[in-house]
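Sample entry (260 residues):
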Amino acid sequence: MEQNLFKKHAKLMGTIWKKAKKQADSGSLQDIYEDGRYKMGLVDAKAIESQKGDFMVVLSLNFLEGEYIGKTKNVFRVITPENAEKGLARIILDINKLGYEIEEFEQIESALEEIREARPVLCVTLKTRGEYQDGYIDKLLTGEEAENLEDEPASGEEVPEPEPTEDTVDVGSHVKFDWKGEELEGEIKEFYEDNTKAKVKVGTKLYPVKVESLSLVKEEDPKDGVEDVPEEPEEEPIEEEKPVRKVIKKLGKDLKKKKK
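Predicted structure, serialized as C-alpha cells:
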C-alpha cells in the first residue's frame, strides 16, 4: 500500500523535488513575503553555524503591523570562505544600525546578547533576488517613531528601486566574468541564499560566480561598433576637350596610319 502511495504522488513530487531539496539544504523554510518596507520587532539575534559549518548570524524579526502582523521573518548573515570580508562587513553594519559599536570579532557575541534583551523596533526593507528574500535594516526606531512610522511607506507598500549604479547586477542582467582565465559573458538566472554568488547562464551551462567578480555589460549604443561609411565624393566634372587637343589627337592617329 505504501508503494502505491509513493507511485500515486511521484509525478507531482518529481516536479518540485529539486527546489524543495535546495530549500531544505539551506535550512530555510520561511514564507516569502511581499517586498516592501515594514515596521518589525527584533525578537532574537544569535550566532550559529550553518549546515556547511560556516559562521552565521540569524536575526528573527516579527511583523508589528499590516497583513503579516505576528509572523516571523528570519534574516541570515552568512560568512563563507568566498565572501568572508563582505559577509563580516554586513554583520558589523547591522550591529551598528542597531545602535552598537564593536571593535573586534569577539564583541559580536556580547552585542547580540544586548540586542536580544533590548528587543528593538526597526524599519526593515524586504527585497527578493531570484528565489531568495533578504532583509535590510533601514534604521532603528525609537520613541514616537517606534509607535508610528510617519513619512514612511505603509507596510507592504512597494519601495522605490534605488537608482542603479554602473555596477548594479540583478536577475536578468547581462554580465561578464573570468572563468579559469577565459572571459565569458552570460545572463544571471538566480542568486544563492547569501547573495554572494549568482548562477550565470552561458550557452547551456550555469556557472556559479561570486557577485563581486561580475561586471555588468552595458547595452551598446546602436552606433557603437558600426563603422561610418564616408559619403562618396562627388564626381569631378569632366573637362571638355579644347580644339588644340583634338588636333593633336588627330595628328597622332594620322602618323600611325602612315607608319602602317
